Amino acid sequence: MKKRLLIVTGAIVLLIALSTAVFADAPVKLVVNGQMIETDVAPQITGDRVIVPVRWVAEALGAKVEWQGQSRSVLIDMPGLASLQNQVKQLEAALAPAGPQEAVETWARGVKSRNGALQYAVLSPELKEQKRLEFEGMNWVTGTSSPWVESYRIEDKAQGEAEWEYAVSFEFASSTGPAGSYTSIVTARQYGQSWYVSQINDDNYLTEQLKEQVRGFLNKKYGSHYRVEGIELELLSYKAEGTVAEAEFLTKVITVMNCDTPSDWPPQMGRINYLAENQEKLSPEILQVVKDKIEFWDLELRQYIGIPGENNEFLKVTADIDGLGMIKEDTVKLYSEEPEGTYVLVREEDWPAFKTAEELIQMGYDEMRQLAGE
Asked: How is domain 96-201 classified at the architecture level of CATH?
């Protein structure tokens, strides 16, 4: 008899909607791939488990379910799975590279097109075992939509009897133009009659990814209230230990204040608003103090409006790395160097630069209230 299996892969999502606080009159819902399933036997909660009728779940996933009374067995078969697996196997066999350069070229083409299945097809058995979960986790789509790989170049680096090494240089682009480059050192090894990618060294790519995180942070920090004229990043140190990468940069940002007059600058606007609303209530002495402070900032701001300013700081960035040499963006942390030389975690809520114009106006207003002793 044909062996029947139920195989659930990362592409199949089974959702059981369950709340930890379940009322007696609240039925448990069964949702498979976004579809509500009505069962003849209601799902039940037993202790810390949810019991559901297997036929309804399996059939919702496209499987066939059979009851064998003699052996008292439930047989579950997914008839299309074996055919699909064989189809993938035949496609990978057709893609099997005949030489080392072909293996690396196919892999690079997969990187450029963000095609994880194509990259995976030319990996060695060892790399496939290491990286399958990462590809599945990305739904077989790698890289980012921006910046994207615009082009690549492959150069011989070293060769042996059964192993060749190549330098693959990728050029990136974004909607604003060129977005940097990186070089991967890729090794191809012979397995039987075919060649496969057996090792990928992406340190340069990791530093470029970390650099883009710092660049994005600086654009966000200065872009709301200044016009960013240029950003320069100098890599001071880099290390990758286990699944964590870390880099330190000396940054230089050229900015111009995004206002035409001192009264357009949000904090100064708040100070002026306070004076306009409260000057009739203030004593002559306090009124003069407030006016003096506004005049001080007026003169101070006039020195910088329309004139490019240079902002320098040391920043450190850390991030977790996935099995494909990509940083996990939700793990990125940025640290700013304090005057005494120690790094502290950047918390955007603590930095005025990340506040909205309305928040800065309120800060200027509150500054005057405090000055007036309110």
From this structure: Roll (3.10)
